[in-house]
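Predict structure. Input: non-specific protein-tyrosine kinase, 524 residues.
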Amino acid sequence: MAIGDYLRAFRRFWWLVLVATLIGAGAGYGYTLFTTPEYQSTARLFVTTQSGTSVGDAYQNNLFSQERVVSYAGLATSEQVAARAVDQLKMPISPEALRGKITATPLPKTVLLDVSVTDPDPGLAQTYANAVADQLVQLVSELETSRRGGTPAAGAILLDDANYPTETAGMSLLTTVGLGAAAGLVLGLLLAALLAALDPRLRARESVDAIAPAKTLGNLVADKRRPDVPVANLAAGGLAAERLRELRTNLQFARTPGGRRPQVIAVTSPSRGDGRSTTAIDLAATFAESGRRVLLVEGDLVNPTLTTTLGLTDAERTRAEQRGLGTVLAGDHDVASAVIANPGGAAFALLPAGPSPASRRQLWGDESAGHLVDDLRAGWDYVVVDTPPLTTVSDGAAVAALGDGALVLARIGHTKTKPLRAALTVLETAGAALLGTVVTCEPGHERELSKQPSGDGNPVVAPRAEDARPARGGAARPNGNGGNGNAGNPGIGNAGTNGAVDAPTEAIDQTGAHRMSGAKREGR
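Output follows.
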């Protein structure tokens, strides 16, 4: 995981980090509250040796005293000193218990030794410390005196009697709570990083870029304020609409491996719920907004939803149930009779899935499928195909291979890493071009979502009947029938098929262009 991944994990699991910090602070407070306070009393000893007459002797004696301080510290915590102190005090405490209360600390680079005793009673702590110091002085005198008698080679002198402690020993309440909070914070950060590492779902567009060989062409934001309408209201403006337009621009400037502008675009994804249908509808509407003749194809013959989503009239719905892509591929109907012009008032045409065919896979593998795609490319400026997920049905890869390439969607917080890799492998195996990836449902800021764009946006609605003109090539072109020839958005039929988008000075190849964004809908 990169630093950015950790930062996103901490931002995502901020509540976990906060809870862990509060629990740590509470644990520190509870420890202080329920722990018996103890007091520490300290007596200080001075270690001496026999003095010499020269400066060299004095220096050697000082080093000897410093070495003796360490030895005397060990004696202070010995069982013999504790037993002698208990005998001196005549108090109800065992030598083992008193020994556990004693600490001896030599002061660095000095001949001073601090002997401390800790006890819940400050008075007893002082009494015990004085007794231990007295007995240590006596024991040192006995050990340093030769058996033949004479002056001890070294000794310990009680420099300061034990004090009466007024403050508890150990850390203060503030320090304990602070350390507990710090420990909880570290634990919370570790848990957040662990959960993020174990989460297989994609959480940012950078994760998609790290997996996909092609760049991200679009970054569609999640707009919770969007009303429950089938087609994005591009005229309303805002960040969501601008991101859709940026996706359209990137596709217009993209190029297939053969060097041509992509016209037949398969919109697919690794799994269901990634927003394919919603993105396909919005992409078709965005292309239509720019004055192009657009055909939206319901390529998911397994689970078609476009006819329901677009809100067709009863007559259109009846027609969609009788004829569509399946019957066209089977040779039962021609394209002109199956295409629905301006479904639900949209500015693009729709080729519904139609009745479910008996052998769906054979239809896409038949030679007629290739002819159909070529005819659609010749009759429309853009053909957007809503396909099933790549990891469950092979139709998406077949459409992408027959057409100009595929847009692979990855929904933030939903699409998983493994299925995305598998979907890209399916496309590669089928020999389909990957135009780029599109990140969907990225969280958008409320202020950005409501911001009006600088450019003008026209509502993407069907033209008036009196303004309708037959679309060039029309829907009837594949089979030469004239019926329903205005299905290709007649109000904007003056756009040239080949001259719809001027070639850029420096074409962007099929790996994509810039990162963009658009709107959230609960797509398949």
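The mean pLDDT is 76.
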